[in-house]
Design brief:
The structure holds three protein chains of three kinds. Chain A is of the alpha/beta class. Chain A is built from 16 helices and twelve strands. Chain A has two domains: 231 residues, 3-Layer(aba) Sandwich (D-Maltodextrin-Binding Protein, domain 2); 95 residues, D-Maltodextrin-Binding Protein, domain 2. In chain A, 45% of the residues lie in helices and 19% in strands. Chain B is α/β, with parallel strands linked by helices. In chain B, 36% of the residues lie in helices and 23% in strands. In chain B, the strands form two sheets. In chain B, strands 5-6-7-3-8-9 form a six-stranded mixed sheet, with helices on both faces. In chain B, β8 and β9 form a beta hairpin. In chain B, α2 packs parallel to α4, α3 packs across α4 and α6 packs across α7. The longest helix of chain B has 22 residues. In chain C, α3 runs parallel beside α6, α3 crosses α9 and α6 crosses α8. The chains are: A alpha/beta, B alpha/beta, C mainly alpha. At the B-C interface, β5 and α2 of B face α7 and α8 of C.
Chain lengths: 339, 255, 275
């Protein structure tokens, strides 16, 4: 089996080497694949990979399927309607992995000290009442989409670090949480900067801290696929990751390191604007897209230590089965692992 | 207390139902009103009881009802109108409760009317357990409980089979014989009319007018089933009504 | 032809046979046990299928695992924690909605001005998916119990109104006429004739309203509920935990059956006068 040895070799070479090594696909067959995405800037890796033809070069005919939330996307992967997707490792994802349906194969977005990441927010009422740091949130209500969501994890980890108790309010949708926070129905929340900053700008909510202060190297989102793709379609999976990594690499160098200067940023904003905030005028969208810039994992490298921490937390909260091991959830053979 | 109708006419929009009815109902007598269907006899009864108002003419009470009378003009309906969720006793106490009669006084009245209608042992029964004849006897007991000055009976026996009808007619006769009451008795059944009526008002088809008032002198308790003199009267009434009934039957229903 | 035996002796005797029975069917008969058998059969099929592997664990959980999950929930004491808040929400919300609904329905049934004013309004409110108004209720009544009561109350209100005024309309007019002929006061006629007469219709409307209340319970617990059967189901759904999801759904079904049986019991008690 030639593929096996090659895969082994590549795993040793590490993530970025993987991306480079697979720039020329072994068998260009124009396979049709479906990629699930949310209309968030953190999904830019897939968007750039598609727009700049990196997937096509790898011999893949990519079609996007857009979702409103992470869990339906995980279910779509399990049902085989979507081949690859990027989202947080939620409790639902872990359960599906435990049922042998999905596998996490790479990292997408992570918190890093020193880089602008997710923010803790409080309502104006709470802020006026003197809640100006996360440590003062004891006994306050905290918005989450559902039990086992990334919001639940962030809030819970922060509370643990500060030694306080939070009242978690499941509100199902990000929109509902924003509404509740603005009207003061809940006290606090955490969210990515491209949403946090404009909200804080309105004066109805206030930023009181950074998630990265509590969760250094937090692996926020991951690349995942069906267990079948991970084990039986190794070539296709590698091809996808290669195209995706090239997109991520372009995004990081252009948006964060400004390798192509402002012109490069504007060009990429134009590209991303096709998918994110498409309903808003260019100028407004550009601000939000630039605001939302976060570093994506080069070569889709993933932080297994963070993932292990998340899994342990799910188990400690009784949200997923105690017997699940990290090996059940992830397939580390495709990319470099960190941590 | 007598009842007098003078020049009563009625129409619904331009549809004339009754035309110029003048009639006296003397105290202590049973007046039967017969006529083909749709002649307005039930409407006339509703005028007498004040449930409807005639377009022209007036309905008068002459004299005042006796002091112990709770509801001077009391109906007995063809469909009995018993509350199905109340027992026999409850249906009677219903009409006493609003008069402020409760407790032992109500018990005494209920016991009395149930004895008079031979229903004493069924006081706990619900209407659904009773036969049609018993239901109508409950309705009669209920009417008796308020000690009416005039009983307004709207085809009270029409929903019953013929044997039950005979039995109830006997009951009504013995009730009247013991304590005579005033009644207006609407029916389309001529046999009932000749058994129970002191006078029989024959009405024409629509618009209803009085064709003839037939008086019967035989005392009520001497009229029996199959009596030849009564048969003659009945034949005479039928002779009066026959053409009217045929014409009424051929009319289109006015909706 | 009165004497059937007087046939000429030489004609052959026609063959005698039983008249064919053709009056069968179309008669509702009670076969309660069939329902149980169907249930048991489906469960056995699911159990067998998932055990043998021809039903994937992604599609259906093992019924026995669901039962085990339910047992664990019961043993942990959380069953009562979820059930008690849900039942409170259901009770308070449905009580508010149903009593306001009955009151409004009776008023519509009795007064033509109220009818003219409120029937179009009810018709306008009826088709609104109440779930869509949940965020609004959160703003109006707060994210805690208020909005949940309001949602369930609003959802049970409209069907109760429609059922009640229909029931009042259907009260036998001849009974009302009887009441008037005995000089009963207006209030007596309403209390002793109209309301008891409308009771069958009101109770069957309540059957539907309470089923709607259970549906809305899950919706109400979408926003800001930590405990409750609906919250439990939604959490199980977002965790893709099929055993818990099915355990929760089974609890809801049992709740529905219990409520329906309770109303049936009330009906037999209160409406024993019906034919």
């Amino acid at each position: 089996m030639t593929t096996f040895t090659r895969r082994k070799a590549l795993a040793l070479l590490g993530g970025s080497a993987t991306a480079a090594g697979l720039a020329s696909p072994a068998l260009a067959s124009n396979r049709k694949i479906t990629v699930g995405a949310l209309r968030f800037t953190s999904h830019s890796g897939s968007f750039i990979g598609f727009e700049r033809g990196y997937f096509a070069e790898a011999g893949m005919d990519v079609e996007f399927k857009f979702f409103q939330a992470a869990t339906p996307m995980a279910v779509a992967i399990a049902s085989g309607d979507v081949d690859y997707a990027v989202t947080a490792m939620s409790g639902g994802l872990v359960s599906l992995a435990d049922k042998g349906a999905v596998k996490v194969i790479g990292g997408a977005l992570s918190e890093e000290k020193g880089i602008d990441g997710q923010k803790f927010l409080v309502s104006d009422a709470a802020y006026q009442a003197g809640v100006t740091t996360p440590a003062l949130l004891g006994g306050k209500s905290y918005g989450i989409t559902s039990a086992g969501s990334s919001f639940h994890y962030m809030g819970s980890k922060m509370a643990e670090a500060e030694g306080i108790e939070l009242k978690f309010k499941p509100l199902q949708k990000v929109g509902a949480i924003i509404g509740a926070l603005k009207s003061g129905q809940i006290d606090a929340w955490s969210i990515v900067p491209h949403l946090a900053k404009p909200l804080a700008g309105s004066g109805k909510v206030h930023i009181i801290g950074n998630v990265s202060d509590y969760l250094a190297d937090y692996q926020v989102t991951t690349v995942f696929t069906s267990a079948k793709n991970a084990s039986d379609e190794q070539q296709m999976t590698r091809d996808f990751l290669a195209g995706y990594s090239k997109g991520v690499s372009d995004y990081n160098s252009t948006m964060i390191d400004k390798a192509q200067g402002d012109e490069g940023v504007q060009e990429l904003v134009d590209l991303i604007h096709k998918y994110v905030y498409a309903d808003r005028p260019r100028e407004k969208a550009a601000k939000s897209i630039i605001n939302g810039t976060m570093r994506l994992n080069e070569g889709a490298a993933m932080n297994t230590a963070s993932l292990q921490d998340q899994l342990s937390w799910f188990q400690a909260e009784g949200l997923v089965d105690q017997s699940i091991s990290l090996e059940t959830v992830i397939d580390p053979s495709y990319v470099q692992t960190l941590g | 207390m007598d009842i007098r109708l003078s020049g009563v006419s009625h129409s619904y929009d331009d549809f004339e139902v009754l035309r110029d009815i003048s009639l006296d109902i003397p105290s202590g007598k049973i007046v039967c009103i017969v006529g083909p269907s749709g002649c307005g006899k039930s409407t006339l009864l509703r005028f007498i009881g004040g449930l409807e108002k005639p377009t022209r003419g007036e309905v008068l009470q002459i004299g005042s009802p006796p002091a112990d009378c709770l509801n001077p003009l009391t109906y007995i309906f063809q469909d009995f109108a018993l509350l199905p969720w109340r027992s026999v006793r409850g249906n009677i106490s219903l009409v006493l409760e609003d008069q402020g009669i409760r407790g032992p006084r109500a018990e005494a009245i209920i016991a009395d009317v149930l004895t008079r209608t031979k229903l004493s042992e069924f006081h706990k029964a619900l209407p659904k357990q009773l036969s049609g004849g018993m239901k109508q006897r409950v309705a009669i007991a209920r009417a008796l409980a308020v000690n009416p000055a005039v009983m307004l009976m709207d085809e009270p026996l029409s929903a019953l089979d013929s044997q039950t009808r005979e039995l109830l007619m006997d009951d009504l006769v013995s009730l009247w014989s013991r304590t005579p009451f005033t009644a207006v008795y609407v029916t389309h059944n001529l046999a009932e009319a000749v058994r129970l009526g002191h006078s029989i008002v024959v009405m024409s088809r629509r618009p209803g007018e009085i064709r003839e008032v037939v008086h019967l002198e035989t005392p009520l308790d001497q009229r029996h089933y199959g009596d030849s003199a009564l048969e003659e009267k009945q034949k005479y009434l039928w002779h009066l009504m026959r053409e009217e009934a045929r014409a009424a039957d051929a009319e289109l229903v006015h909706v | 032809m009165s004497d059937l035996s007087s046939k000429p002796a030489n004609t052959p005797q026609p063959q005698a046979r039983q008249v064919t029975f053709r009056g069968g069917g179309f008669a509702p008969a009670s076969h309660r046990w069939i329902g149980v058998v169907v249930f048991a059969l489906l469960l056995t099929l699911a159990e067998l299928g998932t055990r043998q592997g021809w039903i994937s664990p992604l599609t259906l959980p093992l019924p026995s695992d669901v039962l085990k999950t339910f047992g664990e929930l019961y043993a942990s004491g959380l069953l009562w924690a979820h059930l008690s808040v849900s039942l409170t929400r259901l009770f308070v919300g449905a009580l508010i909605g149903a009593s306001l609904g009955v009151a409004t329905g009776v008023l519509i049934g009795l007064f033509s001005y109220v009818r003219a004013g409120l029937v179009p309004l009810t018709a306008a409110l009826f088709p609104i998916p109440k779930i869509a108004l949940l965020p609004l209720f959160v703003i109006w009544f707060g994210i805690d119990e208020g909005s949940k009561y309001a949602l369930i109350a609003f959802g049970t209100f409209t069907p109760t109104v429609v059922a009640t005024y229909g029931a009042v309309d259907n009260v036998d007019r001849s009974l009302i006429r009887m009441g008037q002929s005995f000089n009963l006061s207006w209030i007596s006629i309403v209390r002793k004739i109209v309301l008891p007469g409308a009771m069958p219709g009101i109770l069957s409307g309540l059957r539907i309203s309470l089923a709607i209340a259970i549906i809305l319970l899950v919706a109400a617990e979408m926003l800001g509920a930590e405990y409750g059967i609906g919250a439990y189901i939604l959490e199980a759904g977002s965790l893709y935990d099929l055993e818990r999801l099915f355990a929760g759904v089974a609890i809801l079904s049992m709740l529905g059956v219990t409520l329906s049986a309770t109303i049936g019991l009330i009906e037999r008690r209160v409406l024993n006068w019906r034919q």
